[in-house]
Design a protein that fits this description.
The complex is a heterodimer. Helices cover about 35% and strands about 25% of the residues of chain A. Chain A contains eight helices and ten strands. The longest helix of chain A has 18 residues. Chain B folds into two domains: about 190 residues, no CATH class; about 240 residues, no CATH class. In chain B, the strands form two sheets. Chain B has a six-stranded mixed β-barrel with strand order 2-3-7-4-6-5, surrounded by four helices. Chain B is elongated, with a radius of gyration of 32 Å. Chain B starts with a helix and ends with a helix. The chains are: A alpha/beta, B alpha+beta. At the A-B interface, helix 2 and helix 3 of A face helix 1, helix 14, helix 15 and helix 17 of B.
Chain lengths: ~230, ~450
């Protein structure tokens, strides 16, 4: 296991409030934390405690109400929308609970898509895509569209899509929630193996005990605040 | 990839896309079929006008505005020299198909057999020139238009059906659909109506019973004296407009000159120039005007659109109709595509959130949906062109006939699809632009979706 380096993510006094006035919902209440690079970090919390909000802020798809979010050493709050898009395209891979593959693209094209966003050349793109499909064991299924794949295969494609551009950070929100336990366990093993191979920082929001069991680090949350891991994970 | 995603999404919801494309296609076909119909009509009108009066007419300067009421005094004596001048010009020789003099005149006509009389408006042609003019068919109009060509007999002419009715010639000319005046019709018993007949008889000498029906034509000569000639009726040709039909006379130029100029020097009111191609009008006109200016000839040139005001009016009518239909269909396309794209955006909110999270810029999302609208427009418009050609093919073979405005004879109803490729291309492009614009609003909405909300969308 690689030694912890500079934090991949640093949050300082981060709050996120939805709405205003009496109806305002404070999803995050002054979170300060550092997530180390190259680790398998789990954000664990009961439902509604703000773990998805935290992941959204780290993933630069949402902005904090206050506080500073630094990802890969860069404060992202003041970046323009285009700069944030480019930053995400280069730096962050996403794995979603519902797979979120583009339905009109084949498995190959779904994996290739992030490379197109980064302007990678055709030859490199093809090589990297096939390598990643091979790594997740889906070379044979590369021409299939998402509706022709099983849940586990879809999530493998999603993992390949998240890793194909060799991002510094992969965020996965409940990646096993829509899979049966056997497939979920396979996916956890696969992600762990790929994380070890690539040294990429993985941050999960999860309830899945199989996944939590693989954690290098655990960030526990309750009611929008950090909590003791022992309070959350039994 | 953006275009690939856009194209595949069109086929993703095939039924909705097909409905949208069919709406565009039917709209496109409707515009093109109307354009083809209008174009054919305009070409028929133009062909009729050019066959009868050429593209350009040379008059004495001022005739067109001030002389049509008294064409006899506006004739020019050296018309044959001018005809030769035009024919001999190297530029005009390449452009002009027919150069022929013409004499316009008006007067009073009488049927010596029964005393029927009325005013007439006549044109005197050189039969050879007129016959050649009638063979002009630049647009390959399938219809065989009514011929008003004179035969070689200088004493024979052609009259309108209404004119024949006034002259009481229906029976002698074996005309059907030619009513007789009611018995209660008022007549003039003892007024000047009788005078012309007596005067005509005096001028023409004792009337013999001709085998071919004939009429006497009385007109004032250029010098102001009354003159009369007898004209045999070679043929009756019904005209579209009643006021024209009731006084229509076409005669040999020699006979017209004999009537207008008597024993004096024969002149012509105009010289008709028929070109090979209508598009050469500006060049030919400019050349004629330069030629006349260089020789200090006091002549003016008018084109057939100025002379036949109804042609321009018909053109304007069709243009306004075309614009109205095009705008109407454009609005339908706008709403249909906008609605289809709006639904598509709503169905793909999560997909939009995913692609944005992966790093696609807002502009990429916008481009994707706008491309989708443009592709729907392109596919629909292309299908529409195919539909229009199919409709034209069917109509052109159905044997339908109709009577154009201002004409008295039914002609085949044709759709001239190949007549204006620029219109087809313009309609195709306009519909794509309309579909693209229609997609712009939903595309902007898609591009501006907050990523987090889009990812949460179920």
């Amino acid at each position: 296991m690689p030694e912890p380096q500079e934090p991949a993510i640093r949050l300082t006094g981060v709050t996120r409030t939805y709405g205003s006035g009496k109806g305002a919902v404070r999803a995050l209440r002054g979170i300060s934390l550092a997530i180390p690079s190259g680790r398998f970090t789990m954000v664990v919390a009961p439902s509604g405690s703000g773990k998805t909000t935290l992941l959204n802020l780290i993933g630069c798809i949402d902005k904090p109400t206050s506080g500073v979010v630094e990802v890969a050493g860069r404060a992202v709050a003041r970046l323009s929308d285009n700069a944030l898009s480019d930053f995400r395209a280069r730096t962050i891979g996403f794995i979603f609970q519902s797979f979120s593959l583009i339905p009109v693209l084949s498995a190959y094209e779904n994996v290739e898509y992030p490379l197109l966003l980064t302007g990678t050349g055709a030859q490199t793109r093809r090589r990297a895509t096939l390598e990643m499909l091979a790594a997740v064991g889906l070379v044979e299924q590369r021409d299939r569209r998402p509706n022709e794949l099983s849940g586990g295969q879809k999530q493998r494609v999603a993992i390949a899509r998240a890793l194909v551009k060799r991002p510094k950070l992969v965020l996965a929100d409940e990646p096993t929630a829509n899979l049966d336990s056997v497939t979920g366990a396979e996916i956890v093993t696969l992600m762990r193996r790929m994380q070890q191979q690539s040294g990429t920082t993985f941050v999960f929001a999860t309830h899945d005990p199989h996944l939590i069991a693989q954690a290098d680090e655990i960030v526990a949350m309750r009611d929008g605040e950090l909590a003791q891991a022992g309070d959350i994970v039994s | 990839m953006t275009f690939k995603i856009a194209l595949r999404n069109i086929f993703r919801n095939a039924r909705r896309s097909l409905t949208t494309m069919l709406t565009i296609a039917v709209g496109c076909a409707a515009i093109l079929v109307f354009a083809a119909y209008a174009l054919y009509d305009v070409y028929v009108l133009q062909t009729t006008a050019v066959q009868r009066g050429g593209h350009l007419t040379v008059y004495h300067k001022g005739y067109f505005d001030f002389g049509t009421g008294d064409p006899a005094i506006w004739g020019f004596a050296d018309y044959e020299k001018i005809v030769r001048l035009i024919e001999g010009d190297p530029v005009l020789a390449k452009l002009a198909r027919v150069v022929t003099p013409v004499q316009f005149l008006g007067g009073i006509a009488e049927n010596p057999a029964n005393g029927g009389s009325r005013t007439f408006f006549a044109t005197g042609f050189v039969p050879a020139g007129q016959t050649r003019m009638e063979s002009w068919n630049e647009y390959g109009i399938g219809a065989r238009l009514e011929s008003n060509a004179l035969n070689g007999d200088p004493s024979q002419g052609i009259i309108g059906a209404g004119f024949a009715r006034y002259m009481g010639l229906c029976e002698r000319l074996h005309m059907t659909d030619c009513p007789k005046p009611p018995k209660s019709a008022p007549t003039r018993e003892s007024d000047v109506a009788g005078l012309p007949r007596q005067d005509f008889s005096a001028l023409t000498g004792p009337a013999a019973a001709p085998k071919t029906p004939s009429i006497d034509l009385l007109a004032a000569t250029a010098g102001g004296a009354p003159n009369i000639v007898a004209m045999k009726i070679g043929r009756v040709e019904r005209q579209g407009a009643k006021e024209m039909d009731d006084g229509y006379v076409v005669m040999n130029l020699t006979l017209a000159q004999q009537l207008v100029y008597g024993r004096g020097a024969h002149k012509a009111t105009g010289i008709i120039v028929q070109l090979y191609r209508t598009e050469d009008i500006p060049a030919a006109r400019a050349r004629l005007e330069a030629l006349f200016a260089s020789r200090r000839l006091d002549l003016e040139v008018r084109d057939f659109k100025e002379i036949n005001a109804y042609y321009g009016q018909t053109l304007n009518f069709f243009n306004s109709m075309f614009s109205f239909i095009a705008v109407l269909i454009g609005v339908v396309v706008l709403f249909t595509v906008s609605n289809a794209m709006g639904t598509s955006v709503m169905e793909r909110v999560e997909e939009i959130g995913t692609t944005r999270a992966l790093g696609a810029r807002r502009s990429a999302i916008r481009t994707q949906f706008v491309s989708e609208g443009a592709m729907l427009g392109a596919l629909g418009a292309t299908l529409g062109i195919a539909l229009a050609f199919a409709a034209a093919w069917a109509v052109n073979r159905a044997g339908l006939v109709w009577t154009p405005p201002g004409d008295a004879h039914a002609i085949p109803l044709k759709l001239y699809m190949l007549g204006a490729p620029a219109v087809t291309v313009a309609v195709w492009l306009a519909l794509i632009v309309a579909a693209t614009l229609a997609a712009l609003l939903p595309a902007n909405r898609a591009a501006k979706l907050p990523i987090v909300d889009a990812l949460r969308h179920v």
